[in-house]
Amino acid sequence: RKEFVDLYVNYVLNESIRKPFEDFMQGFIRGCPAESWKIFLPAELQVLLLGHTDYDWQLLKKNVTYVYYEESHQTIKNFWTVFYKLPEEKKKKFLAFLSGSDRIAPYGLEYFVFYIEDPFCQNPDNSYPSARTCNCTLLLPR
After folding, report:
1. pLDDT in tens, 104-118
2. How far apart are CA 138 and CA 76, in angstroms?
3. Architecture of the CATH domain 57-139
């Protein structure tokens, strides 16, 4: 039985996926030569590909640029008051809403710049916040 289980596990986890994995690996190495990746430790490579999870929300506020808003505007004050009261998981969801990912880019949050812009809605009370993930802009109606 032990030999059967060992052979079955080997088949399921190794042999059955060998061909698809080799095809994936060839395509990956063609786009990202393996020599370039060998200089990284596994944890460093994970951060490079996925981003990291060291969140400093005060730094996020420090790096915002306001478009058609002043930092002293009541809408902005309300936004940050509500943001800081959110649980950690909701803050990550906001980051995903804003940038498309709930992880911080490898270069770090100190270089992450985002914008809060007034979209000049005709009736702001009937408008929802939206985001442009390509340039990390939060469109926040007054």
Report:
1. 877 777 788 889 999
2. 11
3. 2-Layer Sandwich (3.30)
Q: Is 59 buried (19+), middle (13-18) or exposed (0-12) by CB count in 10 A?
A: middle
Is 121 noted as a catalytic residue in this protein? no
71 SS3 class? coil
DSSP string, 93-139: HHHHHHHS-SSB-TT-GGG--EEEE----SSGGG---EEETTTTEEE
How far is 46 from 106, CA to CA, in rounded Å?
9
Domain with CATH 3.30.2410.10 in the chain: 57-139
Model confidence at 55, pLDDT cuts 50, 70, 90, reads confident
Neighbour order of strands in the sheet with 64-67: 64-67, 114-117, 137-139, 130-132
pTM, to two decimals? 0.69
Separation CA 29–CA 27 (nearest Å)? 6
- Which one of 32, 121, 134, 136 is the catalytic residue? 134
